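Summary for the funding panel

The consortium committed to producing paired sequence-structure records for every protein in the target list. Below we show the first two records in order, beginning with the earlier of the two.
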Amino acid sequence: MKTFKLFLMIIGLGLSSVLFNSCLSDDDGYSLGDFWIDLVTVVPIDDTTYYLRMDDGTTLWPAATNVPYYNPKEQQRAMVNFTILGDSTTTKDGYNYWIKVNRVDTVLTKAIAENIGEENDAVYGKDPVEIKGIWAGDNYLNVYFKAYFGGKKKHFVNLIPSTDEDAMFEFRHNAYDDPNPGYTQGGLVAFDLSSLSAENSDSENNIITVKVKTFEGDKIYEIKYTPMTKTSNVNAKSLDDVFQEGVK
């Protein structure tokens, strides 16, 4: 690939992870030695067949794969490493690109949880996190966070409707008193906003406000969100950092 644009984002004081926008249309040709890593939505066709949809609406058809036993599921986000084999000018099958899938890492994908009032703290927790990235795309709210882990218990993260007049939602983290939390590690979770999209389908632009308990206290994040529109391409190069097995 003759043009390979990289946009660097620092996502930690002691950790840098390369993030880049896949400017697919800028390239003159494709090489099997090139690859992209992008956060996508998996769109199943049947039990074994699927295509991938990027946050800007670009569609990818897995014409070849290194993960033949991948089981696609509805409403599933994934980080996918792929190589472009051809584009719509040569394939003419309705997909923007034919690709080879090199690797698929499932991203924790959840619905918006119920606000249960006085039980919120006990069930969803009130343990602090550090927000390293929060953005909306393809009708999902994506949260890249860091927290202290002890490695003994799975943590619990959720998005719930907020009763705070300054926020629409609250991001909740329950560490379940994970013993000896001696290290921080990143986690990536996507929350399905499709129900919100249906309610706001006539709105061209929306702002989602999310209240988060951070290590510096409560913060409210404002995220631009356009229902049913792909608004953001955010891609992570360091898969091992953003996937945390200890969260559910």
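The next record, for a separate protein in the list, is shown here:
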Amino acid sequence: MKPLPLSPELLRIASRVVWFKEPEETLREPIHFLAHVMTYGSLEDLKEIDDIVGMEDYRETLDHAPPGVFDPRSWAYWNLICGRTPCPPLPLRKGVL
């Protein structure tokens, strides 16, 4: 995935959806950031990033989703939006059944 700009809008979203890291650090990991936006972001957040990320970025995030970020509802929703049916299982942390 392409690098994300350190714009004020993205920094604000990053500080809200990934509250446990500095926003600049979060934006250096685009897939991690986008997975959190897809799970915890608001409609306004999604509208703000619309010019920066596209459907291929959402698909790539699903393909490489970090375990433990998506909840079942968000995972099912985004897989449906991205045309991935049937929905694959949620990514799991290693050692978790």
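Regarding this second record: Residues 8-81 form one domain. The chain is about 55% helix and 0% strand.
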